[in-house]
């Protein structure tokens, strides 16, 4: 069943005027693509827990794979605000579609571009940008999520390469990935990044089933049973936890923008419904309690928009700190989840039905508030930044 997308943009503080003409064009084209290709079909795919694989070509064509990667490597060569806008518009459709684009861009293309050899960049980046191959990012393990420094996956020297042993869990796109950026410890205990290719002997990617969240996004494990990794598949440009964490800075930044898209969609749906639905002879929107919800939603969305716009300006100038990014990711994802929960209530029973996108957004955001660093971990990152004292250990 195809759904009609009635979304209207509410720009209460005229944030639009802070954007360039190019940013506005990008927003319009991605919004139009989402309206045509994503929102009519995504509910059915989510209900069936199926990834709409046919969208990969379209995502590549709108520049969602590597927006800020230079054009010489197949990227779109755009700035960080453009990247954020693309994530916002995609997540207005579904967090899982945004996940596909942010993993490919920030967790696969970014590390290859930033830490890869020239040969690795030429070999993988143009194909990733075109969506000819899909990547995933393996950091989390069954026993180590928030604390990746304790990872158990190992790389042991053998001939002209390494043997990779261990496993990763909760990996977005694992079941469909052609390559995986995997972080593991060498014999000196130093974290290194390697590019694992599908088809390498001993490498498998079992799917994680029965999720109630991000149902249209494939999630799985990465299992390495003595996988031989040739030297040319090791990322030469980085060692230590700062390798994967620097990729997370980029992905978390995109999520801070993306979450606003989900919130905008929920707010717009709730506003329209509250104006159309009558109880006690009046529209729901005429009751003070419902106006309070709507007014607070729009206030929080507007604050979040300004937060990411400023963060984008800082990021374009290479001045955004990891702690500033944590603050925005944490604030905006909780904001979106709160908006989704309030919007769902405004719709009453209709709020639980797939004909409206709210419940899907709400369930998706339960993952978004956990992945890329949990809500609590981001608070502790802010706490460490402002006090100088780590409360992690
Ligand atoms: P700590 O001792 O603080 O740091 C170790 C080294 O890393 C450096 N560093 C960073 N570098 C770049 N960016 C950052 N954000 C960095 N944070 C720390 C740090 O300077 C140090 O460098 P050096 O040179 O001195 O060695 O590390 P810690 O072990 O105390 O851990 C800190 C903590 C807890 C904040 C961190 O490990 C953390 O962020 N944990 C959360 C894990 C996480 O976010 N996992 C995400 C997995 S990927 C994912 O979820 C993808 S979802 C995809 C989707 O579908 O969209
Ligand atoms: P844990 O680390 O076990 O934490 C459990 C709880 O304890 C949390 O509430 C946490 O905040 C709290 N906690 C932990 N440590 C502390 C502390 N020091 N102080 C206070 N509280 C603490 N990972 C990848 O590598 N690649 C991916 O592509 C990827 N995709 C994902 C997709 C989905 C759908 C999901 C749900 C997860 C994905 N993840 C991925 C994993 C994700 O990054 C982790 O789930 C996340 O980092 C948290 O780890 P954990 O689930 O092991 O929770």
Describe the structure.
The strands form 3 sheets. Strands 2-3-7-6 form a 4-stranded antiparallel beta sheet, covered by helices on one side. Strands 1-4-5 form a 3-stranded mixed beta sheet, with helices on one face. It has a two-stranded antiparallel sheet with strand order 8-9. The mean pLDDT is 97. 49% of the residues lie in helices and 13% in strands. The protein is an alpha+beta fold and 393 residues long. The protein starts with 20 loop residues before the first helix and ends in a 6-residue tail after the last helix. The chain folds into 3 domains: 15-129, Butyryl-Coa Dehydrogenase, subunit A, domain 1 (Orthogonal Bundle); 135-233, Beta Barrel (Butyryl-CoA Dehydrogenase, subunit A, domain 2); 248-387, Butyryl-CoA Dehydrogenase, subunit A, domain 3 (Up-down Bundle), CATH 1.20.140. The protein has 11 helices and 9 strands. 3-thiaglutaryl-CoA is lined by residues 99, 102-103, 137, 139-140, 146, 148-149, 172, 240-242, 245-246, 248-249, 251, 322, 371-373, 377, 381, 392.
